[in-house]
Amino acid sequence: MTSTHVSRVLPGRTAGEVYGVARDLDLLPHWAHGLAEGDLTRDGDRLVLDSPMGRVQVRFAPLNAYGVLDHDVTLPDGTVVANPLRVLPHPDGAELVFTLRPLGRPEAEVAADAVLVAADLERLEALVARVAAGEGPVTTPPAPSSDLWDEEDARTYDDACADLSTPQALGPTLDLLEGLAEGGSVLELAVDTGRVAIPLAERGLAVSGIELSAPMIDRLHEKRPDLPVVVGDMATATAPGCGTFSLVYLVFNTIGNLRTQAEQVACFANAARHLRPGGRFVVELWLPPLRKLPPGQEAVPFDVGDEHLGFDTYDVVTQQGTSHHYTRETDGRFRYGTSNFRYVWPAELDLMAALAGLTLERRTADFAGAPYTGESTSHVSVWRTAG
Ligand SMILES: C[S@@+](CC[C@H](N)C(=O)[O-])C[C@H]1O[C@@H](n2cnc3c(N)ncnc32)[C@H](O)[C@@H]1O
C-alpha cells in the first residue's frame, strides 16, 4: 500500500511565509475545499464547521518552526482523518507536500481526492501571493490577552521613556542588535512608537515591526513614515518578509504583556518562523523580585518618590502580576494607572525557545554584556534557529 504525495512548489516564497498563511485558521476557508459551505466558528485552536452534513472540526499541529501543518479533521460520525501537510524549503522557494493515504479506498477515489488537494494548494499559493502583496482577506484573529495601548498612551509614551531613549541609554542596545543582525533585515515585535526601531533603522538596517496598538503605530509613522509596521498580535501576526529576517527582537519586558503561557509559546514560534536559517531572536526581560516578598505579602514597591509611586502586585500561583502607578499631575492631583503582565523565568523561556526550534546562544544581564548571575535583575537572551 502506498500513499500519494501531492506537491506544489511556490517559487520565490519562503517556507516561513507559506506556513504563516496556511496555519492561519481564519484564512483556511479561503483555500481548503469544503470549508466554505457552512457556518464556521473558532473553538480555541479548533475550527468548527456546522454544515448540512453535520459538524466537522479541524485541528492543526501546534505552532512550530518546522513547517509541520499536519491537521486532523473530525467528521460528523466522529471519524478522525489525519492529514499530513508540510511546507519545506525548496531551492526555488517553498514546497507544499500533502500526503494522501488510501485507507482501503479504491484507487479512483484517492485520485479524485488528489485533484481536490492539488486545487487547494493552488488556491493556497494564490492566497500567499495576495497576503504578501498586502491584499489578503481581512481576518479577525482572536484578541490577545495584552492590555491595549490607547491614544493617551501613544501621546505620552515618548516623554515617559525619554530617559531610556537617549543615545547614551540606547547605545549598548543598538550596538548589540546591529551586530547580531549581521547586515540582514530586522523585525521588532511590539515596536511601539519606534523607541528602538527608529534609531536602529537610522544605522542603515532594514527594520520592520509588528504592533498591536494602532495609535502607537501612528505616532511611529509621524516620526518615520517609511518604517513598515503590521498591526497585529506579536504571537500570531505575519510581517512581509516572513522567513527571511536575520534578527527578531522583543525588548523592554514586553513578552510579559502576553498574559498566558500559550501565547508566550506562540510568540516564540512566531518569532522563529520569521527568521531565516541561522537567524536570531533576542528577548530583554526583567526578573520579578519575588525574594522581596515576605510570606503573606503581595506587593513590592519599585519607585517611591514625590512625583510617582509605583508598586507591583503578584499572584505567585498563576505568575500574573500588575504594576500600579500613582503619578502626580501638574495640578497636584495623582493619576492612577495599571498594567498587567505574566512573569516568566529564563528556564521557561528556554523551553519555549526549544519548542520553537531555537537554541540559546548567549544570556547576559544587560545589552552591554554584563555577566548574568544569581543577583541579576534582568537578562538579555539570544536564541538561534538551526542553519
Ligand atoms: C513596553 S512597550 C514595548 C516596548 C518597546 N518595544 C520599547 O522598547 O520601548 C509595550 C508595547 O507593546 C505593545 N504590545 C503589547 N502587547 C502586544 C501584542 N500582543 N502584540 C503586539 N504588540 C503588543 C503595546 O501596544 C505597546 O506599544
From TrEMBL:
Keyword Cell cycle recorded: no
Classification via InterPro entries: Methyltransf_25 (IPR041698), SAM-dependent_MTases_sf (IPR029063), START-like_dom_sf (IPR023393)
GO BP terms, alphabetized: methylation
GO molecular function: methyltransferase activity
Residues annotated as domain Methyltransferase: 186-279
UniProt superkingdom: Bacteria
Pfam families: Methyltransf_25
Keywords (A to Z) from UniProt: Methyltransferase, Transferase
Keyword Isomerase set for record: no
UniProt name for this protein: Methyltransferase family protein
Organism whose genome encodes this protein: Lapillicoccus jejuensis
